């Protein structure tokens, strides 16, 4: 549904990309005007006609969808369109319809229903009128895809928290602990009910003789008035029939009760007098919400919140709805065949679609994205059934890990070494890593989109400790080959003993290798026969029975990290334990593709430097020869001057040519099979192999000696956005090409005096504890039956985080259930906080080579750790403040087993119609068992959701348009740039559908770019959308969501809506506390921005408090004698002066002056400015009269700093983004007046209580001016 609603704000895309338009010399504007026009649609019922705005590039089916979703035409779902009496084909474009132009008239003609159309119509009407109850989806978790955007700043009753003159920040407490109630929307009013129920009748399906007459379905509708109607769905429409619950007569009723219509919606409105009014109320109720917050996600897996409301809350009322159990029949028919799809054929035929024209590419990429979304959902559903043991394996006699399954045309296996393939590489651990890397490899190949090379759809699902791989079935993969034929056509067969080499794969793998910097190299089979391969010997090629060439096992696209393996891995020997310093769990440690790219760029720089040096030497040698030849010539002739000038110009041109280097001769590729058991035979091969090994070692050295130290230095200097949690930390490391196994090494390097690095070290240790716990918890959850998983998870959490509340937590296992599962592993019950701590420390030492020692969960950071653990394991906890300390536990009432829940409400009172004795004594309630005092109980874990890794490719077309727009803007071609950006936005929305993480990123990027192009309203609108889409697809407390809220607050402030901006600032700071805790290094910027916003609202006292808070964090993070601190002291001094605290202002300005003076010297502009202000403020404190005369000389600009400035309002760099990137597109603007930029005399007059006589026209400060380097 979301996909088709992109026209909410969608700019219409031009026929060709705007870049091509410009090359052709067209203006593009005239064409753009033609690209949008209105059509009139004639309707068979009231209001008889409607106007709809379209673009000629839309397909007829998109136009149909617009009709279906327009309020006055909701009733139509089964129809076709005609133009001048000719039927329009659904899949043709409007531009292809002959004679169709602006204001043309189309006719809507109702079609006869088929059984499928009737079922779809019933589903649509149920959803439209709010008759479908809550869905309990087995795949998506509780409140999946929730958004807080519409309720931010509202209290529990739904009213704004800040009222009157009070700002949203009035009662904010910087040091208060994080509150999880900020992660849930306030309780909501139930939606107006339009009917009591719509369901499939017990008389369904129609008997044979009536099916032959066109009967499709029988329905039962109960109206709000309490009347029940039996309705027949017929090919011609819907009518009320004569049946009752006891009698079957599906023929139409007699007049005046003969209600009939083509649409079920019309029939319901005619039988229920209150329907029209209540349906209107429902539409108004839905209109209060942003459309994006209520659309269903169809192209992305919704984010599952880790904190969800209690089952008794108004968000989760469980309603009676008979049709809920009938939905799968309504969706997929009687025999369920409609949902069975041949996934592999769909994937490959989509890949073979034409991609020459832009419109072909849009259609192909859109279809690809939708197909991946459908496949990921279907594969995950199947994986959950496999994990729960609900599918019979194809090989039930094999060991559990070796079992394979087929469900819904998807092949499933476990990410474990069931058949001993990885015996020498690390067994189950190696297999688990390999399938994770395989998904990344498949995604890389999908992104390259090499014609003729195919991959199978691949999804990896982590659920209840198991890793399950779902793959689309490659035709021929299970085929028994003839003798002498190999199962694989290219690469290693049966281990590496045989190597197959079908020549048809060479050109395909050659393209793949070039793109991924993989070197063509020889490998040797068991008979030492040499085979030259493109790609790793582990990467396999298979010719399917459909004739297509498939690439399989893509987990080795980059070389091994030999430095790590040599240091921490040793070959397993039977009967012997590995030594502690060489017991890394597997040998699958490869370098990241980003590192290979980074090393490639380094080699390219070296190549260019060498080439320039060669050219320079050649030039010098050449010029000496020239001089010798020219000397005698000069004596003989006296050439005219203009010839000399021409000669000089020629020399300049030659110099320019000298600076150009042809890089076509540059080659760089790494051999992925070095250090993996290959033995070269000839001397020539040995020599080449040694070179390959040296190159891979150099890349490993580049990682440890250059990349990691540089990253730590940048984080220390504050040159990149500081990570907030494990997710943003891993994103940052992966961007730089650093593997997660280096967390321990980074933590050691970060152990310095610097406060920023100490904060980084704390975050790294927290992430290692979380990851170590995840591995340990998975090992315990793997063999536990699903009904007891929440018990095990609660006990594990108690041992990790609840040790202080109860040092001997008890697992709340149901003894009756336990006795039924004799083969389950209940060893988790014996765990204690000490044993779990030891096990996690062992995991951290094993995987990250870091000794935790005394380091453990930091006091006050338990909530942050709990959040990380829940996100890693897929736990959904009941939202409440969990007690991690004895004091907190004492304040909480002892937990009791919950009262029985009825329809989402805890049952509190009972009433009975058959009360015989009114005066009988009240019966005492049966005593609820009191549970042990511990932090978590089994009932707190409401659900466990799967963690999904998928391989959907990105849209190249949309990315190209975005990049072209950015480049045009950087070259100062604003109009073209803006056109291209809107084109890119339109492409993103068309290809991905609106609700998709990629679209959230493009909304964020575009809102920034448009803001800098002075299109503030569009920037604000996109910033709002970025928030909603990232909340629903990434999570309400994802780091990107937080940054989107900060962005939104800046744009709202710049648009003059400061009060609303402060609401978003507060929400972002509350989220920050939950994600990271208080005092995040980058929060200085945000708090400083809030202070500036308060100042612009003349809330001087409040603004002073926020400047002081920003200063306090800055002193802690940057040290007391830093330029950042001096800048904030300068701003705080001005804030104190505005708050009429002259003595405090003088002291702060003096401190600021002293730091500037000692760090920048007395001649620096900043020092002089601070000195000037200091003089004025000191004088004003002594004698105000004299000051008024002395200071009326002119205006002083606010400090502009070299380096990073926390002053003014500046954008928050996203995690891993450099500060210069976040401000690079900002352009200086004039006429910015802020209170701290006023002429000093006006400021002083304000301090003395006199209003300035001439009011300067105030404009809001520009958010993009913060942090610009001077």
Automatic annotation (TrEMBL):
Residues 313-565 form the Clu domain. Residues 894-911 have a biased composition (Low complexity). GO terms for cellular component: cytoplasm. It is found in: Cytoplasm. mRNA-binding protein involved in proper cytoplasmic distribution of mitochondria. Residues 1233-1253 have a biased composition (Basic and acidic residues). The gene is CLU1. GO terms for biological process: intracellular distribution of mitochondria; mitochondrion organization. It comes from Sporormia fimetaria CBS 119925. PROSITE patterns: CLU, UBIQUITIN_2. Keywords: Cytoplasm, RNA-binding, TPR repeat. SUPFAM superfamilies: Hypothetical protein c14orf129, hspc210 (SSF103107), TPR-like (SSF48452). GO terms for molecular function: mRNA binding. Belongs to the CLU family. This is Clustered mitochondria protein homolog. May associate with the eukaryotic translation initiation factor 3 (eIF-3) complex. Residues 1-31, 614-660, 894-926, 1202-1270 are annotated as: Disordered. Its main location: cytoplasm.
């Amino acid at each position: 549904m979301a996909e088709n609603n992109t026209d909410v704000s969608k700019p219409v895309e031009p026929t060709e990309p705007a870049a091509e338009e410009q090359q052709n010399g067209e203006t593009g504007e005239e064409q753009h005007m033609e690209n949008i026009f209105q059509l009139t649609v004639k309707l068979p019922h009231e209001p008889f006609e409607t106007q709809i705005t379209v673009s000629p590039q839309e397909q007829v089916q998109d136009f149909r969808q617009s009709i279906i979703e327009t309020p006055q035409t909701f009733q139509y779902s089964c129809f076709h369109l005609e133009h001048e009496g000719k039927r329009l084909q659904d899949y043709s474009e409007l531009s292809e319809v002959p004679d169709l132009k602006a204001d043309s008239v189309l006719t809507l003609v109702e079609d006869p229903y088929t059984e499928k159309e009737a079922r779809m119509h019933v589903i649509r009407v149920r959803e439209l009128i709010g008759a479908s109850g809550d869905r309990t989806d087995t795949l998506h978790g509780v409140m999946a895809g929730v958004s807080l955007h519409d309720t931010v700043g509202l209290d529990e009753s739904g009213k704004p928290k800040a009222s009157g003159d009070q700002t949203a920040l009035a009662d904010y407490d910087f040091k208060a602990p994080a509150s999880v109630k900020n992660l849930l929307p306030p309780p909501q009013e139930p939606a107006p009910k339009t009917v009591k129920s719509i369901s499939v009748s017990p008389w369904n399906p129609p008997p044979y003789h009536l099916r032959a007459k066109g009967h499709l379905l029988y329905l039962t509708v109960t109206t709000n008035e309490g009347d029940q109607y039996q309705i027949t769905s017929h090919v011609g429409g819907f009518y009320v029939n004569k049946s009752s619950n006891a009698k079957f007569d599906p023929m139409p009723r007699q007049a005046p009760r003969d209600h009939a219509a083509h649409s079920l919606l019309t029939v319901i409105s005619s039988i229920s007098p209150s329907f029209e009014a209540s349906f209107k109320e429902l539409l108004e109720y839905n209109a209060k919400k942003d459309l994006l917050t209520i659309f269903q996600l169809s192209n992305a897996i919704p984010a599952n919140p880790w904190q969800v409301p209690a089952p008794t809350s108004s968000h989760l009322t469980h309603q009676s709805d008979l049709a809920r159990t009938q939905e799968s029949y309504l969706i997929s028919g009687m025999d369920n065949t409609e949902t069975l799809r041949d996934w592999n054929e769909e994937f490959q035929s989509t890949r073979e679609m034409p991609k020459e024209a832009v419109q072909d590419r849009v259609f192909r990429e859109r279809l690809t994205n939708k197909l991946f979304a459908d496949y990921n959902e279907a594969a995950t559903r199947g994986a959950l059934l496999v994990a729960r043991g609900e599918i019979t394996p194809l090989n039930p006699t094999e060991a559990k890990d070796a079992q394979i399954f087929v469900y819904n045309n998807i092949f499933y296996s476990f990410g474990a070494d069931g058949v001993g393939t990885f015996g020498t590489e690390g067994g189950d651990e190696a297999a688990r890593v390999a399938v994770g890397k395989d998904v990344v490899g498949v995604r890389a190949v999908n992104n390259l989109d090499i014609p003729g090379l195919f991959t199978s759809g691949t999804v990896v699902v982590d659920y209840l400790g198991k890793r399950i791989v779902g793959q689309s079935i490659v035709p021929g993969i299970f085929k028994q080959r003839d003798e002498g034929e190999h199962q694989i056509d290219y690469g290693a067969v049966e281990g590496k003993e045989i190597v197959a080499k079908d020549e048809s794969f060479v050109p395909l793998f050659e393209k793949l290798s070039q793109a991924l910097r993989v070197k063509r190299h020889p490998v040797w089979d068991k008979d030492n026969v040499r085979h030259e391969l493109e790609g790793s010997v582990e990467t396999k090629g298979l010719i399917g029975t459909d004739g297509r060439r498939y690439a399989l096992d893509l987990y080795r696209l980059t070389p091994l990290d030999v430095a790590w393996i040599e240091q921490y891995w040793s070959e397993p020997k039977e009967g012997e334990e590995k030594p502690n310093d060489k017991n890394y769990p597997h040998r699958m440690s490869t370098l990241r593709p980003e590192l290979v790219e980074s090393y490639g760029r380094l080699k390219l720089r070296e190549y260019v430097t060498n080439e320039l040096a060669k050219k320079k030497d050649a030039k010098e040698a050449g010029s000496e020869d020239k001089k010798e030849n020219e000397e005698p010539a000069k004596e003989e002739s006296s050439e005219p001057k203009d010839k000399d000038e021409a000669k000089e110009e020629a020399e300049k041109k030659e110099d320019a040519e000298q600076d150009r280097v042809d890089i076509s001769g540059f080659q760089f590729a790494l051999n992925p099979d070095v250090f993996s058991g290959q033995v070269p035979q000839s001397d020539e091969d040995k020599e080449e192999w040694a070179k390959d090994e040296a190159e891979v070692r150099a890349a490993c050295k580049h990682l440890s000696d250059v990349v990691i130290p540089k990253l730590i230095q940048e984080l220390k200097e504050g040159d990149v956005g500081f990570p907030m949690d494990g997710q943003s930390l891993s994103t940052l490391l992966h961007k730089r090409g650093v593997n997660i196994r280096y967390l321990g090494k980074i933590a050691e390097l970060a152990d310095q005096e610097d406060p920023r690095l100490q904060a980084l070290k704390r975050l790294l240790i927290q992430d290692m504890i979380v990851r170590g716990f995840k591995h340990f918890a998975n090992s315990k959850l793997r063999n536990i039956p699903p009904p007891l998983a929440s018990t095990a998870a609660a006990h594990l959490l108690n041992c990790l985080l609840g040790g202080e509340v109860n040092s001997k937590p008890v697992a709340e296992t149901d003894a009756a259930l336990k006795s039924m599962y004799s083969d389950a592993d209940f060893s988790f019950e014996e765990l204690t906080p000490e044993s779990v701590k030891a096990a996690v420390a062992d995991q951290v030492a094993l995987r990250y080579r870091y000794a935790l020692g005394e380091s453990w969960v930091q006091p006050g950071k338990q909530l942050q750790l709990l959040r990380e653990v829940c996100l890693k394991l897929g736990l959904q906890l009941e939202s409440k403040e969990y007690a991690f300390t004895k004091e907190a536990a004492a304040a909480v009432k002892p937990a009791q087993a919950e009262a029985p829940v009825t329809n989402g409400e805890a049952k509190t009172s009972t009433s009975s119609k058959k009360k015989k004795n009114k005066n009988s004594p009240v019966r005492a309630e049966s005593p609820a068992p009191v549970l042990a005092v511990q932090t978590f109980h089994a009932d707190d874990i409401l659900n466990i959701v799967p963690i999904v890794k998928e391989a959907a490719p990105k849209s190249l077309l949309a990315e190209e348009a975005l990049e072209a727009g950015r480049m045009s803007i950087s070259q100062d071609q604003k109009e073209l740039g803006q056109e291209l950006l809107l084109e890119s936005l339109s492409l993103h929305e068309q290809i991905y559908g609106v609700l998709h993480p990629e679209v959230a990123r493009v909304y964020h990027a575009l809102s920034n770019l448009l803001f800098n192009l002075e299109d503030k309203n569009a920037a604000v609108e996109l910033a709002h959308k970025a928030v909603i889409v990232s909340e629903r697809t990434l999570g309400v407390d994802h780091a990107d969501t937080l940054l989107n809220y900060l962005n939104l607050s800046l744009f709202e402030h710049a648009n003059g809506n400061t009060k609303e901006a402060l609401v978003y600032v507060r929400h972002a700071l509350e989220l920050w506390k939950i994600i990271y805790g208080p005092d995040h290094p980058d929060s200085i910027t945000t708090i400083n921005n809030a202070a500036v916003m308060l100042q612009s609202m003349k809330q001087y006292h409040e603004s002073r408090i926020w400047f002081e808070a920003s200063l306090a964090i800055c002193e802690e993070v940057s040290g007391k004698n830093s330029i950042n601190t001096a800048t904030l002291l300068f701003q705080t001094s001005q804030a104190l002066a505005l708050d009429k605290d002259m003595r405090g202002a003088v002291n702060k300005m003096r401190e600021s002056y002293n730091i500037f003076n000692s760090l920048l010297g007395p001649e620096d502009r900043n020092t002089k400015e601070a000195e000037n202000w200091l003089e004025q403020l000191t004088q004003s404190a002594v004698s105000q009269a004299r000051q008024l005369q002395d200071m009326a000389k002119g205006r002083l600009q606010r400090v502009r700093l070299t380096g990073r400035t926390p002053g003014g309002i500046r954008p928050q760099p996203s995690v891993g983004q450099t500060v210069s990137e976040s401000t690079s597109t900002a352009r200086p603007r004039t006429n910015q007046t802020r209170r701290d930029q006023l002429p000093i005399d006006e400021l002083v007059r304000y301090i003395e209580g006199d209003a300035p006589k001439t009011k300067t026209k105030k404009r809001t400060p520009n958010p993009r001016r913060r942090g610009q380097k001077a």
